[in-house]
Amino acid sequence: MTVTEATLPRRLISTPVAGPLAALLLACLFFGLNTGQFFTGPNFSLIIQQVMVVGTLAIGQTLIILTAGIDLANGAIMAFGGIVMTKLAVDSGLPALLAIAAGLAVCAGFGLVNGLLVTRISLPPFIVTLGMLNVVFALTHIYSAEQTVTNLPAPLTFLGQTFRLGQTNVTYGSLLTILLFLLFAYLLGSTAWGRHVYALGNSPEVARLTGIRTRRLTVGVYTLAGFVYGIAALLLVSRTGVGDPQAGQTDNLDSITAVVLGGTSLFGGRGMVLGTLVGALIVGVFRNGLQLMGVPSIYQTLITGILVILAVAVDQLSRRRNR
Amino acid sequence: MKTKLTAGLLTTTLIVLGVAACGGNGGGGQGASAKPKVGLITKTETNPFFVKMKEGAEQAAEANGLELMSAAGKFDGDNASQITAIENMVAAGVKGLLITPSDTKAIVPAIKKARDAGVLVIALDTPTEPQDATDALFATDNFKAGELIGQYAKAAMAGKPAKIATLDLAPGITVGQLRHDGFLKGFGIQSGDPAVVCSQDTRGDQAKGQTAMENCLQKAPGINLVYTINEPAALGAYTALKAKGREKDVLIVSVDGGCTGTKAVQAGQIAATSQQYPLKMAEDGVKAVATFAQSGQKASGYTDTGVTLITDKAVTGVEAKDTAFGLANCWG
């Protein structure tokens, strides 16, 4: 027991977030030097808008990966949540706030089911969420009848509205995303619950022996992640202004990319949610900067791929040194 | 120590990548900024149809003194990536945007924002819903493309009772619906006619087309006419028919006019196809943006970029060109 407690703070400190942050700043510097339009308030506001959906999904993904799990279904769950919110509000005439609440509840519900399957039947998270990916994808298309939902009531698009910060228009959604990251940074870094999540990811057995109710904790993490995907769904709906059954099809891997780029270990127990924010921003900055420079988007995919491998290589090297 | 190593590694790589990215683009970011910019956003980066479209846009941009920026979704239906591309291109100061919308309704709010910012937006290949969400549309008349192969099939069957399989795109996608309806009209039947014995979605994919045809043959072994949404689906159907030894006595008609598909027409695997012209769509689109950049005059309305029936077994009463013409004008 004392062993775990002694090593935990050290592990937290030794998390490689400095690397990703340096990468982000360098990328910004590079694009700033190469295109005149990059270093402007409106452009940064744009980049944050463009990463807020995947970034928020990646918060849930970070929680799950910290427990040494993985979630392949998050993008699909978000898409379903978005369709539930918009269809209930537009087609079924439910008050918008109730429709949003229903969407959030449905997403949390899928998280709960994932968590129960992982803990009660001891299925690997990869398998559970792979299956759930297909189930939820199909449900989205069945429920929506492949139709995009338009003419949304105001509360559903509120987060896409902007307020002025100096000379820059910032969306409420961007603000919410940043606040969510700060909230989870606090929860993971400064509460007993957060320490338990890290302990679980480091060694479920040791965590159990220290008196942590690991099953309940795991179910809680998956459910909370599901709820966060629901928030991502609302952000998506407000950003695009529609309920889109085709949404989020690559967001599962994109969110894992953000987590990995942010220095969180896929083996669990090591990483920081603020690193994930940095990871999501790295992807967004490259996409925006390369586009401003006139580089075709396929190069962005190429560079993201190389960065992911590099980030994991760095993680592996640092683990080897830790031993 | 470790942090330094991490930062150092990432730094080095970033600089290398950054330089590589610039080099690969011939330094597109610098120096060229005096030229007006035009953006091309396609559904995907890999489909030969869009590759040809990009080629046409590049040539036309060069010829008209414009700088071309391009982007694409990661998969067909990827609305989020197209929105992001629109925003980034507007931020980069494009004069005009050419877009093949992946989701015809969902893209509309983002297009509105771009137009509000003074950008000319032209839809290529696929109309938005509503169509007037863009300034103009340059596209194939997909209904006519279907009608042509319907008329051809009617004449080629020469009065033989038809048992038709339709290998369609996917529910709710306008292009697929228009081609399907056009085919039925050209063949002279209504939706729900008993001659159509099997209808399956293929998403325009060869493997899914094969599976769909296999299932249709299980359901109705007597099928003698196959309508396909595009040539990959047609080739999938051909493979399934060949496995059953039926490839000689079943007529396959299709739409697209890609080079692979046109070769299949030449080889007799597909009887006839309606060829469309993505290069022309992009060319016309870029020219319209050039005009707008010079004179402020905006293109508007719908421009039909043409469709031609390609077959080596022409039938009387339906105008067609042979595969020599088709191969000279094919894409991909």
Automatic annotation (TrEMBL), chain A:
The chain crosses the membrane at residues 12-32, 72-90, 96-118, 125-143, 170-188, 217-238, 258-286, 298-317. Keywords: Cell inner membrane, Cell membrane, Membrane, Transmembrane, Transmembrane helix, Transport. The keyword Transmembrane applies. One of its GO terms (molecular function) is transmembrane transporter activity. It comes from the Bacteria. One of its GO terms (cellular component) is plasma membrane. It is a multi-pass membrane protein. It is found in: Cell membrane. Pfam families: BPD_transp_2. This is Fructose transport system permease protein.
Automatic annotation (TrEMBL), chain B:
Residues 1-20 form the signal peptide. Pfam families: Peripla_BP_4. GO terms for cellular component: cell envelope. One of its GO terms (molecular function) is carbohydrate binding. Keywords: Signal. The keyword Signal applies. Its main location: other. Gene3D superfamilies: 3.40.50.2300. Residues 38-296 form the Periplasmic binding protein domain. PROSITE patterns: PROKAR_LIPOPROTEIN (PS51257). It is found in: Cell envelope. SUPFAM superfamilies: Periplasmic binding protein-like I. It comes from the Bacteria. InterPro entries: Peripla_BP_I, SBP_2_dom. Belongs to the bacterial solute-binding protein 2 family. This is Fructose transport system substrate-binding protein. It comes from Nonomuraea jiangxiensis.
